[in-house]
Design a protein that fits this description.
Layout lengths: L3 E3 L3 E3 L15 E12 L5 E12 L2 E10 L13 E14 L2 E19 L6 E18 L1 E3 L3 E21 L5 E23 L5 E12 L28 E13 L4 E11 L6 E11 L1
Antiparallel strand pairs: 1-2, 3-4, 3-15, 4-5, 5-6, 6-7, 7-8, 8-10, 9-10, 10-11, 11-12, 12-13, 13-14, 14-15
């Protein structure tokens, strides 16, 4: 099964489809991951996530929980910082060279209780909102030589998020308000994975994708493993569509028969506003 990165900045490490035969005896997997997204000159946003996955024949199902720190949204484009906690249920099935992966995510966003604005015009924010996402990915694995796989994939996602924003009243004072943003996203991605080491225990390769969204304000990670860990609500304009590219790479190392380390890095190209760089790492143990 392929690596899957869940909405709301969750990275659940699962077994690649091309290595499924080696993992038939290991039907459970527990993973923990973390990462950061760097956007322009703003502060970094970090997240941590944990997941449990159960393999059932050629299929799998799992659940993951994540917490996202809001520091990167502090003062960014007048968006109110929010701490996001999210639960995601995910699953998939491999049908020979074709794999289908999906996810459904629900979460709460707690807008920080703090003063925003100047000392003369403070704005106190103390409220919460919701986040929801669902997505589906179809992948086709093509063997390349004895140790490689080229994998084109297509994804479709829907995301909805409640956002706290700041606005200026006619008298010049700042005030906060909550709004709901939603939209659809789709991507066409291509990745290559090269297996190496004893018993092909390690893998590494590049990734490139074209992503289109009807509302880049709410675009978040879907079911493609290397897709950008993108902040929710970083656009000052509501409902803004966008098309951009993402490039990056990932690597996975078998530290032992049951322990695996996964790393990934991704960069946006042509994203409206500041470009973003995403870095993540995860450990998983199977039994």
């Amino acid at each position: 099964m392929r690596n899957i990165c869940l909405a709301g900045l969750i990275c659940a490490v699962s077994t690649p489809a091309y290595a499924a035969e080696e993992a038939q005896d290991n039907q459970w997997e527990i993973g923990i991951s973390g990462g950061t997204t760097m956007i322009g000159d703003s502060d970094d946003q970090s997240y941590i996530a944990g997941s449990v996955t159960r393999e059932i024949g050629d299929a799998y199902i799992g659940i993951a929980a994540s917490f996202t720190d809001p520091s990167a949204t502090q003062g960014l484009l007048r968006t109110v910082p929010a701490r996001t906690r999210q639960i995601t249920v995910f699953g998939g099935i491999g049908l020979n060279a074709i794999s289908i992966d999906g996810r459904i995510a629900l979460g709460r966003r707690k807008f920080d209780t703090e003063n925003l604005g100047s000392e003369d015009t403070p704005v106190v924010v103390d409220s919460s909102g919701q986040i929801f996402g669902t997505g589906l990915t179809l992948t086709y694995d093509i063997p390349v030589g004895d140790n490689g796989f080229f994998s084109p994939s297509v994804s479709a996602d829907y995301d909805s998020v409640d956002i706290g924003r700041l606005a200026t009243a006619p008298n010049g004072r700042l005030f906060s308000f909550e709004e709901r943003e939603d939209g659809f996203s789709g991507s066409l991605a291509f990745s290559y994975v090269h297996l190496f080491g004893d018993s092909a225990a390690h893998s590494a390769g590049p990734y490139v994708a074209i992503v289109a969204s009807s509302n880049s304000t709410v675009f978040s990670t879907g079911t493609v493993g290397e897709r950008m860990t993108q902040l929710a609500a970083i656009r000052d304009t509501s409902g803004q569509g966008d098309v951009w590219m993402e490039v990056g790479g990932s690597a996975s190392f078998g530290l032992s028969d049951n322990l695996r380390l996964s790393l990934s890095a991704t960069q946006t190209l042509g994203f409206v506003g500041p470009e973003a760089t995403s870095l993540s790492a995860g450990l998983s143990i199977s039994f």
